[in-house]
Amino acid sequence: MKNWFHSWRAAVRIARRDAWRFKGRSFLVLAMIALPILGVSAFDLTVRSSQLSTTESLSRDIGRADARITDPSFAGEPLNQDPTGDQYAPVGDFENKPWPDGPANIEKAIPAGSTVLEDTVGSGKLHTTHGLLHTEIRELKASDPMARGIMRLLDGRFPERGGEVAATTHFLESSGLRVGSKLTARGLDADYRIVGAYELPSSLDTDQVNALPGAFLAPLDKALKADDLPGTSPTTTQLISVPGGFTWNMVREANAKGVIVTSRAVQLNPPADSDIPLYQQEGWEKYEESTAAKTAAMAALGTVVGLAMLEICLLAGPAFAVGARRSRRQLGLVGANGGDRRHIRAIVLAGGLVIGVASAVIGTALGVALTFALRPVLEDYMGQRFGGFEIRPLELIGIAALAVVTGLLAAIVPAVTASRQTVLASLTGRRGVRKSSRVLPILGLIAFVLGAAIALYGSTMTEQFAIVAGGSALAELGVVALTPALVGLFGRIGRWMPLSPRLALRDAVRNRGRTAPAVAAVLAAVAGTVAVATYAASIDAQGRAGYTPQLPHGAVSAMLDEGGGRDVPTVRTAVQKNLPTEIRADVDRISVGRPGCSMYSSGEGCGRYEVVVPKANQCPLWMTSGTEDPTEKFSKAERRKLTKDWRCKENEVYLSVEGGVLIGDAKLLAVLRIKDAGAEKALADGRIVSFDKRNIDTNGKIGIRLVTDIEAADAAIEKGKDSPGVVKSLTAHQVAGSPNAYGVSMILTPDTAKAAGFSTVPLGAYYSTGAMPSDAQKQKLDGELAKTGSDVKLHIEGGYTSENNIVLLALTVFAGLITIGAAGIATGLAQADAEADLKTLAAVGAPARVRRTLSGFQCGVVAVMGVVLGSVAGVLPAIGLRLTDRRGQWKWYQQALDEGWGAVSPPNAPIVIPWGTLAALLIAVPLGAAILAALVTRSHRVLGRRAAT
Predict the structure, then answer these.
(1) The dihedral formed by the CA atoms of 501, 506, 511 and 513, expressed in degrees to the nearest 10
(2) Which ranges in 462-497 belong to alpha helices (H)?
(3) Do 344 and 329 meet the contact criterion of CB atoms below 8 Å apart?
(4) Looking at residue 155, what is its pLDDT?
(5) Which residues, in sequence order, are bridge partners of residue 95?
(6) Structure confidence at residue 464 as a pLDDT band (50, 70, 90)
(7) Which of 214-228, 418-432, 592-606, 869-883 has the lowest mean pLDDT?
């Protein structure tokens, strides 16, 4: 070994031979390094493959056309757009005049000599083998060459005649139909034959059928309107093919006529920002991620990668130390034959290099193979086809290089330690005297104090999570550096322990070089777990405290606002049939205009109603007068005072019905658990029952205004005037106290509504239950409701449901696996290091079980020390983050009071320690690690000669 190359070549050969000889240890380290590389490389390939190029994206959007023209309904007003057509705005200032609304004349925007292909999309309810399915209906001549690329034909053919349709594979799977089946739509007598199956490459989970233009939507729309039902709501765009392409100047000409253009030529060769008028308008600019945001993202990514590499190094480092310790005689022979310390270091480092290179190759290769094999599964999960299987060699090489660097870093400390052994000590097996570094604990203490100070500053003086997280990470690194010194402190309790745990603790303290990395690895994993678990438990407690039930516990509501309540009787029966209901309270709603209009529809023949709140009862903060902001009339002190005014109190539960007005009877009171004999009598007497005293005037009546002209009403409101319409007054009964009516403001019976001149339509029902519905009952009900093809709003009040339980369980399992792995590695190193002690125990007649118990306690000691230190280190950053949350919430609360945003509740940001998770980590995990180590350790050893020390 006379030069650098030859010495390293020999070192690599020795390391390769040792790695092959000790396959178990090599596989363990290789797996620890290769698994993250596999995951990262697979993630990189998935992300890159799913990112479509501009050409691929245009092919899926406009096929082979040159452009797509879309009407944004600006009534033909000139507009400006960006090159993609995603951002647009009308030209001019519309702050003090009505926003343009209405169709544009698209024909004027189409260049002369263009070929046009219409693409119309609507929706309807189609009959399936299971019932009805709300489906997207598209009319596009898909066989036209201009449309090639928008749809990918998988089976059969595209429709060629009026009575034919093609369907997406997702629709066929959902409906139970197949190519060749008949297809019918609800409300339409005609039927269609499914002649082909296709998919939308960028939307695989879309339920859609395709027909020729004019073959499906127009007949269905006509039939639905004849039955006074909502139509298909079709929207039409034009695919354009023009000689020479659709240039930016042509886009600007089309914009002047009030339409948006998605142009192939413009997107492939976009104009300069200075030539885009939209970016010159006030409030519009090209969206780009700021340099600060990019820097922060890179810093976060670097921190995650760095901490992951540190964790792997802490886990793999002791494994390399095990190899160096078991190969010390071999290393001693290298020294005896003229090798110096750098050669010893090279051999141990070469072990890290060999494992790192093997991990890089295997991890990257498996990542590529796994992504390729699972490509269909990934595409289905993401809901879109990849543009191609894109491999970026430089990125994969960079990912693989992380494995090599990690392997080398993990072997540095074992290499330095091995090189410090004398030749005599290595050949005789003596361990020599090991002195701990005095500099490392000092640096660790400085890092811990500095990190804690940064985290404290971030949590008390700012609302920046990054500062708290950065300080916490620095403090955790400081604790890792302090680990050798902290391990020494644990040794002081050994004097009160029995033989096996005392030997295990003494061995761990005397050999901190192998104990500290394993403890630090457990510490890092447990600290992260405890931090996330504490934060999640605190968020969970906050959600539980702030949860607002929508109904009494166990109650059920089912609402349907479409088709004039046509399917409501079916929905009511389905719920009562499939759930353990006791009381059923049917409810209707007031309808103004055509019965088929939905609640907030502004279509032709549709109206609405408004609850007339007396001006004396209106919240001053909400009283508008034209465009004036009512809160500007008051000072901050007055706003704060008004937020506590009873007139400014908002309902905690939002009911989708306008004004919270329901048509029902006394059964509804029973379901809502409102016990008021006066309310039941008032309903029987034909009075309206009110739960909100703001709606009652001085005469004890409530006014409801029927608005038939929505446009006139909106114009009046913009001017600060009352909406035009007829006001119906009803004698009211105000329920005493402040009962929780769960968003319902008033109830009147069907007879009272009819007597007052209100038209009503079925809305749904409320139910009380004898027991909480089971999952099986819910699933069965969901299936029954799906058959209606309607958008039923079903709510079963089961109280607050935590979404973090599975997260806490997963974190506990993860930390447990890391703890057992790190403790097992440390135990293996301890056994390799304590052969002499074990031989002495056998020589003096120690029972065979002592070896097992010693091994178990060695593993348990490492686990306990790491878990204890990690638990303490993990709670602190979680507390810091919660304090930051609390500070931010209080700032928002004070701003809400100052701005007069209404009655807001003081924030509640509790800090909750997840004692269950901590108990599992502090007791179950170390105990399990100790038992596992004891079980896998051989108790009978052949008595050999004890080496002289």
Answers:
(1) 70
(2) 465-490
(3) no
(4) 93
(5) none
(6) low
(7) 418-432
Separation CA 184–CA 807 (nearest Å): 45
What is the torsional sign of CA 468, 474, 480, 483?
Answer: negative
pLDDT in tens, 189-211: 889 999 999 999 999 999 999 99
**Nearest-angstrom CA–CA distance, 416 and 342:** 9
> In 140-184, at which residue ranges do the beta strands (DSSP E only) sit?
152-156, 164-168, 182-184
Q: What is the pLDDT of residue 857?
A: 78
Kind of pairing, strands 661-663 and 608-612? Answer: unpaired
- Backbone φ and ψ for 705, nearest 5 degrees, come out as -95, 130
The sign of the torsion formed by the CA atoms of 263, 265, 268, 273 equals negative
Angle formed at CA 371 by CA 366 and CA 372, multiple of 5 degrees: 100
Residue 270 sits at the vertex; the CA angle it makes with 269 and 274, to the nearest 5 degrees, is: 140
Give whichever of 288-302, 324-338, 410-424, 555-569 has the largest mean pLDDT. 555-569
- Residue 525, token pair as written in the block: 């994993």
Residue 542: the pLDDT is: 86
Structure tokens at 383: 């809901």
Instruction: Provide the residue type at 817 as one letter.
Output: L
Q: What letter represents residue 917's amino acid?
A: T
d(CA 927, CA 861): 10
**Two tokens at 59?**
């092919």
Over 70: is that where the pLDDT of 826 sits?
no
CA distances from 170 to 139, 164, 374 (A): 18, 18, 19
Measured distance CA(691)–CA(651) in Å, rounded: 11
- Does residue 236 sit in helix, strand or coil? strand
Range of lowest pLDDT (63-67, 396-400, 690-694, 865-869) = 865-869
CB count, 10 Å around CB of 570?
16
Contacts (Cβ under 8 Å, ≥6 apart) of 823 = 518, 522, 859, 860, 862, 863, 866, 926, 929, 933
Question: At which residue do the structure tokens 């009512």 appear?
Answer: 630
Going by C-alpha positions, the residue among 303, 466, 469 that lies closest to residue 876 is 469
Question: In which residue are the tokens 């010194």 written?
Answer: 485
487-508 pLDDT, tens digit each: 777 777 767 777 677 777 777 7
Question: Residue 52, SS3?
Answer: coil
Q: Is 78 helix (H, G, I), strand (E, B) or coil?
A: coil
Q: What are the C-alpha distances in Å from 485 to residues 191, 300, 314, 506, 859? A: 81, 30, 16, 14, 19
Q: What is the pLDDT of residue 803?
A: 67
Q: How far apart are the first and last CA of the chain?
A: 32
- DSSP letter for each residue of 809-878: HHHHHHHHHHHHHHHHHHHHHHHHH-HHHHHHHHHTT--THHHHHHHHHHHHHHHHHHHHHHHHHHHHHH
> For the residues of 230-258, what is the DSSP string, one character each?
-----EEEEEEE-TT---HHHHHHHHTTT
Q: DSSP per residue over 675-700, as a string?
A: --HHHHHHHHTTPEEES-GGG--TTS
The pLDDT tens digits for 534-593 are 888 888 888 888 888 889 999 999 998 887 888 899 999 999 999 999 999 999 999 988
pLDDT at 832: 58
Cα 591 from Cα 608, distance rounded (Å): 7
Total count of residues recorded for the chain: 949
Q: How confident is the model at residue 712 (pLDDT cuts 50, 70, 90)?
A: confident
Biggest alpha carbon–alpha carbon distance for the chain? 112
How do residues 298-332 score in pLDDT, each as one tens digit?
Answer: 655 665 666 566 666 666 666 666 666 666 666 66
Do 471 and 821 contact (CB within 8 A), yes or no?
Answer: no
Contact between 647 and 629 under an 8 Å Cβ cutoff? The reply is no
Instruction: Please name the residues in contact with 363: beta carbons below 8 A apart, sequence gap of 6 or more.
Output: 33, 34, 35, 36, 37, 38, 41, 400, 403
In sequence order, the β-bridge partners of residue 133 are: 126
Tokens (6 digits) for 616: 């004396």
At residue 766, the pLDDT reads 95
